[in-house]
């Protein structure tokens, strides 16, 4: 297992290229199941989660490779084993998004029921309810979700909201299944995340008829078949937001290339609120930070609200503000594994249920810390950039799930991050 040793504090300055979005790439790769043949997906980041997902598709019968340009090629001509195995699903919950496309293509799917993870319980009841509304018979067998629709699926009006609002991968599953259903499906309270819009655009390019893209009401006119596609994934707004905080917390200046500010308005709003400058430039932006950082309140919400996937990173930034901030987590109320680790670095964070009160401190102090989930780990890297001394982060594989070689991208702009074998 690798560890990071991070020397701080540093000031970042320079330019960073933002990669394609992991959370857009995964459902788009799953969409390739819907049409037999060779699809090519470009701007897929080279991450361990993508490798795991490729293996999952291969187990179904697909052939997956990266070509010389780095594009992911998926040949889904043969799908002879519509089973999402426990050994893969337990490593990556996003595997659940093969359920809808497998059911639509094969009339049957078995996918291991995902368990909880470091960020909470993470049920999939809405995914299952949506597919049942389309006519699937679903039961649980030995820890596997068994979904069957031997005579195909039928379009329906479906309300997909849950206690925490819309569901991103639940919307992806029902949307993909509905493209091949008979008749019209309406998904009310659909997720509006740019990653879902990107998936819907991809499905339309495959021959689907999806409208209302980007809105909470998706309308899908079922078609008989879809065809393979060449499609490009959008830039990763969460990676961009993480690098924006890196610039801000080091009082540095970073130009981010390949970054869509229009997907990040809530994030840009919070950054400007605390005194960070964010200016659009070419196909990206320039972010400049300076001290003092002003305190601010953050409430995470489904898109277009502030993303839960940037909550941990902003907690680090607000830890160094000159006053008190409040962070309320309304998507995953238990997503606070980073709080205790940041307190070990001399942050002053107090958790009360889904709320964290952040008392600004003058400085963070390096310590050995443990990466827990992907975004919490990214927050520890940010803390390490700003803290005095050498921060050691254990279990770096969590970071590698979602950030491609983060040290090789931050070191050229002034970070001092060494990857070592523990
Ligand atoms: C996606 O997870 C992302 N994953 C997560 O990113 C992200 O944090 C999350 O959306 C929210 O934005 C991928 O895209 C691969 P949800 P997903 O279903 O779809 C509740 C990262 O760090 N819910 O939108 O699994 C759920 O418990 C990852 O990159 C139900 O109640 O999340 C939560 O409170 C982590 N029943 C809320 O809805 C369900 O059936 C939103 O979850 C499904 C969800």
Task: Give a written overview of the molecule.
It contains 14 helices and 24 strands. With 422 residues, the protein is α/β, with parallel strands linked by helices. The strands form 6 sheets. A 4-stranded mixed β-sheet has the order 22-23-1-24. The chain has a 4-stranded mixed β-sheet with strand order 2-15-17-16. Strands 4-5-3-14 form a 4-stranded mixed β-sheet, covered by helices on one side. The longest helix is centred in the first third of the chain and has 13 residues, at 48-60. It is globular and about 65 Å long. The relative contact order is 0.16. The mean pLDDT is 97. It binds ligand EPZ.
Poorly predicted sequence stretches spanning 5 or more consecutive residues: none
Distance linking N and C termini: 6 Å
Strand order of the largest sheet: 22-23-1-24
How many whole angstroms does the radius of gyration measure? 21 Å
Give the strand tally: 24
**How confident is the prediction overall: mean pLDDT?**
97
Number of helices: 14
Strand content: 25-35%
Proportion of helical residues:
25-40%
Given helix and strand content, the structural type is alpha/beta
> Biggest β-sheet: count, sense, barrel?
4 strands, mixed
Highlighted features:
422 residues; alpha/beta; 24 strands; globular; binds ligand EPZ
């Amino acid at each position: 297992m690798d560890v990071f040793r991070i020397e701080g504090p540093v000031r970042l300055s320079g330019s960073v290229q933002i990669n394609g979005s992991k959370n857009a790439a995964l459902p788009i790769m799953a969409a390739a199941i819907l049409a037999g043949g060779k699809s090519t997906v470009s701007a897929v980041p080279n991450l361990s989660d993508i490798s795991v997902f490729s293996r999952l598709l291969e187990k179904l019968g697909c052939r997956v490779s990266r070509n010389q340009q780095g594009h992911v090629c998926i040949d889904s001509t043969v799908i002879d084993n519509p089973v999402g195995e426990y050994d893969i699903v337990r490593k990556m919950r996003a595997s659940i998004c093969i359920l809808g496309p497998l059911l639509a293509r094969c009339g049957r799917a078995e996918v291991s029921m995902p368990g909880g993870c470091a960020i909470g319980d993470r049920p999939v009841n809405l995914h299952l309810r949506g597919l049942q509304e389309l006519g699937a018979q679903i039961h649980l067998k030995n820890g596997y979700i068994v979904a069957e629709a031997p005579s195909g699926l039928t379009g329906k009006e479906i309300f997909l909201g849950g206690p925490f609002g819309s569901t991103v991968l639940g919307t992806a599953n029902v949307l993909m299944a509905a493209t091949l259903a008979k008749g019209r499906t309406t998904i009310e309270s659909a997720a509006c995340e740019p990653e879902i819009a990107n998936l819907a655009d991809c499905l339309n390019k495959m021959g689907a008829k999806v409208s209302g893209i980007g809105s909470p009401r998706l309308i899908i006119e079922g078609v008989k078949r879809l065809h393979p596609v060449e499609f490009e994934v959008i830039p990763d707004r969460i990676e961009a937001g993480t690098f924006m905080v890196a610039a801000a917390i080091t009082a540095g200046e970073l130009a981010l290339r390949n970054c869509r500010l229009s997907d990040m308005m809530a994030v840009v709003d919070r950054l400007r609120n605390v005194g960070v400058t964010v200016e659009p430039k070419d196909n990206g932006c320039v972010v400049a930070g300076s001290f003092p950082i002003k305190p601010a309140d953050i409430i995470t919400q489904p898109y277009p609200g502030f993303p839960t996937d940037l909550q941990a990173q902003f907690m680090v930034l607000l830890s160094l503000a000159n006053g008190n901030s409040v962070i309320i987590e309304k998507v995953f109320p238990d997503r606070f594994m980073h709080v205790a680790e940041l307190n070990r670095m001399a942050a002053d964070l107090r958790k009360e249920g889904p709320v964290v009160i952040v008392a600004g401190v003058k400085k963070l102090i390096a310590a050995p810390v443990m990466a827990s989930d992907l975004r919490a780990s990214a927050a520890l890297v940010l803390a390490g950039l700003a803290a005095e001394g050498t921060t050691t982060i254990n279990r770096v594989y969590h970071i590698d799930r979602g950030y491609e070689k983060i040290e090789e991208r931050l070191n050229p702009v002034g970070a001092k991050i060494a990857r070592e074998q523990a």
